[in-house]
Amino acid sequence: MSPGASVPSARVRAGFAAQAHAYERHAALQRAIAWRLARHCRDLPLPAGPAADLGAGSGLLAQALSQQSQSGRGCSWLEGRGLLQLDLCPELLARNPAARRWGGRHWDLEQGLPAELSGAALLCSSFALQWLSRPAVQLEHWCRHLAPGGWLALAVPTAASFPQWRRAAARSGVPFTGLELPGAADLEAVTRRELVVRRQQRLRFSRRHGGGHRFLRQLRALGAGTSPHPPLSAPQLRRLLQHWPTDEPVTWELLLLIGQRSG
Ligand SMILES: C[S@@+](CC[C@H](N)C(=O)[O-])C[C@H]1O[C@@H](n2cnc3c(N)ncnc32)[C@H](O)[C@@H]1O
C-alpha cells in the first residue's frame, strides 16, 4: 500500500465511533471470521506471557472464544490468562464486555505495540490490520513481539477483495475510492520470514447486497466507510452505481494466518 493512501487514525476512529452503537448489528462476516479464528486459537499451547486482540473493537473474537469455552469445546488458556482488548476507538471498547473482564487498552497501533505486550504468548487480530498505513511493517513488528513459542493468529481482508467495485469504477470512469487493502503475498512473505507458519489460507466470501448502493451503505453502517480518497460527487456516484450489476454478489478475500515464533 502506498503510504499516501492511508487514512489518519483520527478519521478511522471517528468513523468507528460514530457507528459503535450499530457495529455488531451489521458485522455478520466479522462475526463468522471471529468464530473461525477462535476455533484455531482455542487449543493453542501458549507459552508464558500476555495475550491480546489487536483492534479488538466490540470484542467479537473474545465472545467467540468464551462461547466455545462454555460449550465444552474448551479454551485451555482463556480463563487463567484473559485476552487484552486493544483498540483505537474508546467508543467500541466501552461496548466490549471482554474489555471490562480482562482489560481494555485504548491504543493506536500506528505507534507499534505497547511495552506490556513484549514477549506476548498470543497476538490475534481480525479485520483490523488493513487500517494501518504499513500493514506488512506492522505485522513484522507484531511477529517480533512474540515470546519464543508464541503465536500469531490473523484474519485480514486483502487487495483481491471487491473486484466488482473496481470493475464498476473502471467502467464508469470514476475513481475507486475504497480503502487500499494489503496484498496477501506481502503479508504471507512476512510471516514466512518471521514465524513457522502453521496455517495459511486465502478464503473467499461472497455476499449479496442487491447492488453497490446497499454494499456501500453496509460499509458505512459498520463505521468502515472511511476512505483516503475524496468522496465521489453525486453524479459520479450515480454513474458508479449504474455500472454496478445488482445481481452480482460482492466478494471478499480474507487471509487467515496462524504462525508460531520458533523457540
Ligand atoms: C472492522 S473493525 C474489527 C473489530 C473486531 N476485530 C472485529 O472483528 O469485529 C476494525 C477495528 O480496528 C480498529 N483500528 C483501526 N485502526 C486502528 C489503529 N490504528 N489502532 C488500533 N485499532 C485500530 C478500529 O477501531 C476497529 O475497532
Structure description:
This protein is α/β, with parallel strands linked by helices and 263 residues long. The protein has a single domain, classed as 3-Layer(aba) Sandwich (Rossmann fold). 41% of the residues lie in helices and 20% in strands. The protein contains twelve helices and seven strands. The chain has helices spanning 9-18, 23-26, 28-41, 60-73, 78-81, 90-93, 97-102, 135-144, 163-172, 184-194, 212-222, 234-242, and strands spanning 51-54, 84-87, 104-106, 120-126, 146-157, 196-207, 250-260. Strands 3-2-1-4-5-7-6 form a seven-stranded mixed β-sheet, with helices on both faces. Strand 4, helix 8 (135-144) and strand 5 (146-157) form a beta-alpha-beta unit. Helix 3 crosses helix 4 (60-73), helix 8 runs parallel beside helix 10 and helix 9 crosses helix 12. The radius of gyration is 18 Å and the shape is globular. The site of S-adenosylmethionine (SAM) has 23 residues, from helix 1 and helix 3.
